[in-house]
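TEACHING EXERCISE
Course module: macromolecular assemblies
Task: Read the component lines below, then compare them to the predicted structure of the full complex.
Student: A.B.
Group: 4
Components provided:
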Amino acid sequence: MGKRIGVMTGGGDCPGLNAVIRGVVFAARARGWEVLGVEDATSGLVDLEYRSPHGNRWLTCDDVERILTRGGTILGSSNKSDPFKFVTIRDGERVETDVSDRVMENFRRLGLEALVSIGGDGSMRIAQRLCDKGMPIVGVPKTIDQDLACTDYTFGHHTAVQTATDAIDKLQDTAESHDRVMLVEVMGRDAGWIALHSAIAGGAHVCLLPEIPYRLEPIVRRVQERQARGYPFSIIVVAEGARPVAGEQSTAGPRELGAMVKLQGAAQRLAAELQPRLGLDVRTTVLGHLQRGGSPTQFDRILGSRFGVRAVELIEEGRFGHMVALKTPEIVSVPIADAVSRPNLVDPESQLVKAARACGVEFGE
Amino acid sequence: MGKRIGVMTGGGDCPGLNAVIRGVVFAARARGWEVLGVEDATSGLVDLEYRSPHGNRWLTCDDVERILTRGGTILGSSNKSDPFKFVTIRDGERVETDVSDRVMENFRRLGLEALVSIGGDGSMRIAQRLCDKGMPIVGVPKTIDQDLACTDYTFGHHTAVQTATDAIDKLQDTAESHDRVMLVEVMGRDAGWIALHSAIAGGAHVCLLPEIPYRLEPIVRRVQERQARGYPFSIIVVAEGARPVAGEQSTAGPRELGAMVKLQGAAQRLAAELQPRLGLDVRTTVLGHLQRGGSPTQFDRILGSRFGVRAVELIEEGRFGHMVALKTPEIVSVPIADAVSRPNLVDPESQLVKAARACGVEFGE
Amino acid sequence: MGKRIGVMTGGGDCPGLNAVIRGVVFAARARGWEVLGVEDATSGLVDLEYRSPHGNRWLTCDDVERILTRGGTILGSSNKSDPFKFVTIRDGERVETDVSDRVMENFRRLGLEALVSIGGDGSMRIAQRLCDKGMPIVGVPKTIDQDLACTDYTFGHHTAVQTATDAIDKLQDTAESHDRVMLVEVMGRDAGWIALHSAIAGGAHVCLLPEIPYRLEPIVRRVQERQARGYPFSIIVVAEGARPVAGEQSTAGPRELGAMVKLQGAAQRLAAELQPRLGLDVRTTVLGHLQRGGSPTQFDRILGSRFGVRAVELIEEGRFGHMVALKTPEIVSVPIADAVSRPNLVDPESQLVKAARACGVEFGE
Amino acid sequence: MGKRIGVMTGGGDCPGLNAVIRGVVFAARARGWEVLGVEDATSGLVDLEYRSPHGNRWLTCDDVERILTRGGTILGSSNKSDPFKFVTIRDGERVETDVSDRVMENFRRLGLEALVSIGGDGSMRIAQRLCDKGMPIVGVPKTIDQDLACTDYTFGHHTAVQTATDAIDKLQDTAESHDRVMLVEVMGRDAGWIALHSAIAGGAHVCLLPEIPYRLEPIVRRVQERQARGYPFSIIVVAEGARPVAGEQSTAGPRELGAMVKLQGAAQRLAAELQPRLGLDVRTTVLGHLQRGGSPTQFDRILGSRFGVRAVELIEEGRFGHMVALKTPEIVSVPIADAVSRPNLVDPESQLVKAARACGVEFGE
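Instructor-supplied answer key:
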């Protein structure tokens, strides 16, 4: 008789989640297994009656046949469903409880024999802990930012970089016609992959990463050197986690600046600092959630589909505590513990960063 | 012998400007006329040596053959080149001078017999005044916001609405998967056309326009009514000029809020007000300059091309002081004075707004 | 008590059909009416048990909330369901029967008080005949080709032209880099609107329409004149219904050519004729069904939504036998009989065609 | 003093060619080298006066600054410029001559010290032979089809697959709404990578590759099994080099079919065979040159840029007779001889093909 397995998606949105779900369902159903779609990350396991908007449900191939093209996740997701620190509001207070035993119990009551957990760094850590408690889990790495180690790429990243590149293309037109300095803030709190990739692809002139603290002087110099050559416009890509080298940032300033620094992001802060130093209009665009939505690119659909299929094979092989990973051109498996032991950051001395410098990208060094 | 005419683009960026320039050049060259591309709005007429990055230049069909697909304007533009209040920086001070006589003089020195001025409300007013001084000008209306009267559509608006609609499509995915309220701020300080059109096209649940001051209560009700029906997500489109009805906005508040209100836009302000009233994540995206760039849609390329061709015909017919306009399906001409006498605003009782209401769009009334 | 109405979609695919259905359902449900979605055009009325893949079903706002972005029609469609000549296969033979009485009877059995018929020329003629038999019908015009009279635009056309323009943009790159003549065949058997609009928007050099029979000589001249000026590439847009002037086409020729003429379309035929006359590579692309699919543009979503809402108002006003139409900027109603009395063809002497000529488009005249 | 190098592009069009050129120019100019852009593959070396439309020219960073977004190649290309079999037309006859000595001589006269040859299989073979004659060449692999060995990916392939996937997405809408079998023919004469990748990404039901000869029976079964389950539509992706197993194809048939088989491609042939066996409408779309044009995806822009930069490093390192290649995540170098010794074909037993089968793709086996 076939197995019963569960599949769930955790953490922030990422194009390609539905491709993974589809791959899992197709591969499992072909083996005669049943697949429970668990709603809103572990929420559906914490409370079997949980419902928002659908609740847990058994998935057929027909249910997932046409979801490949859609952003988001048909299972819903949540950032607040760590079963070891489950958040509830009691008497207006936010309370964190360890409900992992209840999750283990519900998992057994559902008759599940394995769980595919699709998620990022946080979800993989939770998966590891549930695994340690005896739940047979395989992981599927999901991160827009590409900050998980042990895999060449994760799905969603390509779509996000494409969205950022499309935005830079649009801003180039206006920057050139109107002699402007355009700042684009993209995602990446700790890892600057989206910024780096979209800066190269968009032909940006400056790119600021969390991994390379920046100084204002080389940025100003790059913009002014362009202006002197008859190009009074520049594109600056800023990762949300980009920050100046210690001591660089103007700490003194009016109270209003203080509020602004707190309320606003890396790009708006930089804009406020650059504007007075340049004789040019500086405009800021924050891409934000646009990078997490949209129909996935073909690359992310293929990678997601392959991840889903391979996750089912890992269950068949009994490789619990492992996650799928891309080691081009194969999908391999790696221990979840290895993947979460260190983040995947941009190496400032890597060949890729050197190629970016060669293509005229200034990193504010 | 052929005429000598000039063409220039003024004001903010707008997809389709190059289509107009191309239409003007093709139509004029076919008549054996010469066409001077004037650089950076009137800058190129204020100072014949002006150069950024190109300077004035005579345009051939080959120069414009392949520009139809490109955003921006090959002639450059400027918001600071009103010849009646020309801005210069003298001793660190911003000084405004009337240089219109010099512009008239330069126009004659160049041997020009007519000028095509492509621009928005401001540019059309300047065109009218130069016309009154004796310069033979025909206008081509350009406004992302669609706020110029006397024409069914202006080029650029369709592209901007498409960009906004694409963004809403992306945000819908994430909103639905993650139970979020997504605010999208689009352009439109006085006229809410981009917000209205993209809200209908994107299937938004709330749309806030400059023309319809909003109250929070119906917005909260709409979101909560959806939540109660099992749809814990909503999309709210906010024009940058949207504002609450008098007395609605929380005036009291911490100093930080005061700064925020000043520094931030309509959507972020609304988010700060909505968040505490809803039990849901509220996220804001400000589209900003993305709406002004990008390759124009087919509609804007066709409209721009037709406007350009018709502008040359107006010169031939001697209809100076007129601008081209779309009276579907024909391109007609209207006195510039009429077009700038009143803005084209959204009528809250129009058939279009009623259709939006019928499709479930709440205007916060 | 509320009315019961039906809605159905007929004829070929067209982006925006779902927007109309959504508009009908939202507007009707707001009035407390019930809306039956009729499956596969009149098939669902001919046979109440008909099912492919869904069968008739009552539609709620939730059913249509998220369909705005999707191409196709959730109700299915069919080209073979004319109730006056209903096609069935009996003993391997194709038999046509008049089942209109059964359709009338089924309409009554379902308790329907009105029907919204969304379709093209053919569907509107059927609607008129059912109306004449006493069925209270309002029409919504649907045609990719824009060949229905009495309305400024129909939904779907803008999306089709955008798809064709995107294709031309791609072909321009290769044509220019590889010195090629690229033929693009677009839809339009009798009306050349898609060809005309996409030729202007794509900056094509030649455009061949059903309304303007072409001669080879001016086409060859245009291509060679470009080559002589240093542009050894050209883009030729061909409507599927384009044809040479009488006597122009090579009638003599090998048998193979005879077969080819029959099997292949307008563009491939033209390519075979042009290739030997030019010293250049000639390549053909037939866009075909790509023009009928895809997410509708914002324009088509808005127009579709408004048509749907207005159709419900026509029912309320009792204006049966009428169809909605766009008379910019209003949605009006016109008698179906007027709309189908003559096709909407391109007028070779119209301002639009003249503007195309002015922009360098050769029509082979 | 700096080196003088040349760069040229050969073979069919491929999105990302301009990114490579840009990378070469940026990296070379940063070293103080001069870069000659050679026009239309080796044409510019065969005849130093060659001109179509530009002729050879020295390239600056400004020349290539904004070309990243553009399809095609600013240097032009040609399929007819093999210097060992150079094609000319003499007295109406096509004559092939070995002009390689002249090419060597011109290379020296231009003072070039190295050449970057960007091209496919054919161009790499020519590069190898010129290398053998003493020309210092480094190669950059270019192939839409991904049929060159020794590199994980080549630029252009991702864009082509995205174009094919977008097309399949559009056809899915119509197929579903109108109960149709849609055949899409994509590029790939010997290698089925585009078909395989786009079939997975587009959620196709059948995929036919040159590497897996197909039988009709499993295709018919797959379509009918879907129909029986209530899904009377299917998407079939066909590589242009797909062919039936020996003996499968109907050889007998009317003369017209004979002509058709010769004139038409793999998809139209299959359609003619499938139509009578299925009770469904079968429609064919041939994507053709659409796959070679368009703005490159971010992936192809990055890969192209890195290839260009690395090619300059290979020159610096004196690694002539080598070509750049992607060994994820690094750009490495491999002997050209190795890369052209065998094609990169789809392995029917690879993990990727198995994943496709698991996702419901039938290969007609």
